Amino acid sequence: MTPVNLSEKLSLFSSHWDPKVIADYNDNDVMVVKFQGAFPFHRHADTDDFFLVLSGEMRMAYPDRDPVTVRAGEVIVVPAGQVHRPEADAEVHVLLIEPKGEANTGDSTAPAAAKDRI
Amino acid sequence: MTPVNLSEKLSLFSSHWDPKVIADYNDNDVMVVKFQGAFPFHRHADTDDFFLVLSGEMRMAYPDRDPVTVRAGEVIVVPAGQVHRPEADAEVHVLLIEPKGEANTGDSTAPAAAKDRI
């Protein structure tokens, strides 16, 4: 019940593709994350994937359709099962919501990043 | 999988305490809402209540503890069962996430606002 300032939390780390848990919503981790470059294609078999761009601009890329640009102040929800990857030419800051225990990489064979709490 | 611009969605209505669904995340409604004034005290027995202030400033008030100010760029999650009410001296814009079917008013006797989709 204490407000969490997202900019303050984002100032605490500089790593990319390394989400940090900043709040809990039911059985979900509410995270901030910095993206730069391209993540491996992956999917989450059993959950949607929620992204809100806080600053900067990213693309959500798909193997089977055109990428879409997602800018600051925009939400994109990738449905369960949809193969996707975030891409960012320059660093972008994102609010990310996923169920607790869900690997960043879904069912990909890429290693799951730890979800630290800050 | 289409990005949703929150400012554009907020420009489509002017009513207060009238959340509009702009996306779905698993079994949750992702909504934008405008607050001004004070909502009735209420609680959600079975779910947390997620708020991200997008612009402006609000207070989260509780009958049993001091209110907290929540500013633009800040998240507050009210735990399930906690009696609370949002208050705003001037209009504030908020991203709100609640499970589908949950009334704004939780188990309060106040009427539940409809959750329109825009």
TrEMBL record, chains A, B:
Keywords: Isomerase. GO terms for molecular function: isomerase activity. The keyword NADP does not apply. Residues 31-96 form the Cupin type-2 domain. The keyword Isomerase applies. Gene3D superfamilies: Jelly Rolls. It comes from the Bacteria. Residues 99-118 are annotated as: Disordered. This is Mannose-6-phosphate isomerase, cupin superfamily. It comes from Jannaschia pohangensis.
